[in-house]
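Hello forum,

I keep getting stuck at the same step: I have a sequence, I want structure tokens, and every attempt I make locally crashes halfway through. Rather than fight my setup again tonight, could one of you with a working pipeline run this one for me? It's a single chain of 365 residues.
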Amino acid sequence: MWRYAPLLPVSACWASRLAVGNTPLLALGEEDGVHLWVKDDSRNPSGSLKDRATELVLAAAKWLGCTRVVAASTGNAGASLACIAASQQLPATVVVPRQTPYVKLAQIRAYGAQLHVIDGTYDDAFDLATGMADAPEVCCRNTGFNPFTREGKKTCAFEIAEAFEWDVPDWVVVPTGDGNILSGVAAGFLELHALGITKRVPRLLAAQASSSHSIAHDWLTNESSAQWPTSPTTVVPNTVADSLSVSRPRDHIAALQALRATHGACVIVTDAQIMASSQMLSQRHGLWFEPSAAAGHAALKECIVSAGVTPGERVVLLGTGSGLKDPYAFESVACDTPEIAQACDAVPPAIFPTTTPDARMRGRS
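Reply #2:
Ran it on my machine without issues. Output:
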């Protein structure tokens, strides 16, 4: 991502040793009448798009003389912070809700960050992490709180535009929780247009889970209004897409502005739709993304049905995180279907060993 250093607020001399960005744009062909691509940001060092934000935040932290970093997370931002902080040799603290997927907790621990697991929500973790950063030498990476997060995420838009030889696609589908990826991607495309590098700006489609739909609610309620609500609608999230699980989005106004500036749209999808899209992406294209990324694909299908996206248009879906981030979500929801249950019943029992790994090892010895 540092190849775009002239458009970033921090010099590349403060970059980590990790290769963040420059992820592949994969052509998936025609689907439901539209031409579909996936920007596979699961290829980033910690496995998610969040590395773009963290890379720039920690470069700024080094530049400004910070000696410690902290963040609240539902998993991906915390794993990202732990990963890149290790490369930058910065002690890191991550605050997460107890229901954070185990694999993401394991990542955070593996990179050596200090982990605080709380009995509360992401919003509780957010407030606690912000309080930990009162000292001037501590940098808080919290999404929607630290402005450098948006600056890092806009590089995703730069790469998409360049891959299309600066003739941008018609739509970019953005899984949306806090709204920071949405505002960051919009910022990137708007900057390219303002500089005359591109002739237009793609429309953004925000994908929100049905129980974590604060931005969608306020967009649909106030889309034609001259003013946005002063504070986001508070919801009670309960979704398989943990990365989208936010009761009070912290980049709320910027996300709504991003939709308006790009003539975008917002779609709410259910967990069932999310997991159906997860299966489709995995089994048709060999792309296993975590549920939050699959929510974007589900939103696209919904928007095609409602005629928001029209046949022949070019659409890019953001693959925001690897399916390995939360394998249990897929196993507990998507695999509990009659079709897969029937397929499992058809497999000879001998294929599934009944002994424990230890027992098998003792047998070999």
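The first strand starts at residue 25 and ends at 31. If your local run keeps crashing, start a new thread with the error log.
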